[in-house]
Amino acid sequence: MSYVGPDFDPPQPRRSRRGPLTVALAALVPGALLGWLVYEAVGGGPEGSDRTAAPSSGSPSRTAPASPSSPSALSASPSSSDGDGKRPAKSPTAAASGPLKGKVVVIDPGHNLGNFQHTAQINRQVDIGTNHKECDTTGTSTNAGYPEARFALDLAHRLRTLLEQQGATVKLTHDEGGPSWGPCVDERARIGNAAHADAAISLHADGSAPGNRGFHVIMPGSVHSGAADTREIVGPSHDLGVRIVGNFVRETGEPPSNYLGGGTGFVTRTDLGGLNLSTVPKVFIECGNMRDSKDAALLTSGAWRQKAARGISEGIAAFLDH
Question: Is the pLDDT of residue 311 over 70?
């Protein structure tokens, strides 16, 4: 997701249910890769990421999407040989059996391909507890015009399939055949809350400067203001994020962000309505930077998106199983 400047306070150390972060990563990541992660650590944004947040000191500026209102941006897609993972809109279903039977997962594909056609609606302000933000944004795109919204929906379809195969009940916040814009960031949070989700994730790709690459998982900071109260979900959301980071690295080979999170792959934010208003464990993931040529080559590959879906699904499954 593209945003002008996120808060990117490094997450504070937190005792997870299975021990410190390094222990959790050690359980998920092969030894050689864990060593690489530690070496890197030493050595966007979403709302929709709510990417329109005012820049924090030292935060990178976000570039606007490449021609977000052009028809070519809407229709742009990866090579047909990659596949796009499309599935018809459907009601939540669960497999008859599997290790995740009885678990509910809500997937929030970032943005909506039709947002650019509804500027009045997506620019209206909504209450996110700490302040008011835009309902949503258009998202970003690769320089060649592949939209973040299309990437996120394709990844959501792939992730849904993998989770349903394990028995989970899966709900998307929006899908093909649904509303032509939105939903707003506050409504995205309410969908997860109403579903009593055991885990929720918002899928995005960043729109930072070329040379900035890698993925990062955004976790909720502690917020207690107005309609927002994240105090009960900060711990479990952190646990969810730990498991997703480890599995995402292992499955995709994508490095943690080199421009946010200090090389850890973790960012904590308190300005995102999708996190502030959630009452269930939830994280955002920026799978890469669409404006970097190396990351763009991965994000537009169906084979890589399948790896990304597998890494995220394994992280969610590990969280739900612990």
Answer: yes
For the question of residue 187 being annotated catalytic, the response is no
Q: Which amino acid is at 161?
A: T
- pTM (2 d.p.): 0.77
Mean pLDDT of the residues in the chain: 79
Whether the ω angle into residue 183 lies within 30 degrees of 0, i.e. cis, is yes
Q: Convert 215-238 to b/e letters by CB count within 10 Å (16 or more is b).
A: bbbbbbbebeeeebbbeebbebbb
pLDDT band at 232, cuts 50/70/90? very high
Helix (H, G, I), strand (E, B) or coil at 63: coil
Pairing outcome for strands 224-225 and 169-172: unpaired
Q: How confident is the model at residue 187 (pLDDT cuts 50, 70, 90)?
A: very high
Q: Which of 148, 187, 251, 286 is catalytic?
A: 286
Higher pLDDT, 178 or 22: 178
Torsion from C-alpha of 222, 225, 226, 228, nearest 10 degrees: 0
- Burial classification of residue 79, based on how many CB atoms lie within 10 Å of its CB (0-12 exposed, 13-18 middle, 19 or more buried): exposed
**Total residues found in the chain within this entry:** 322
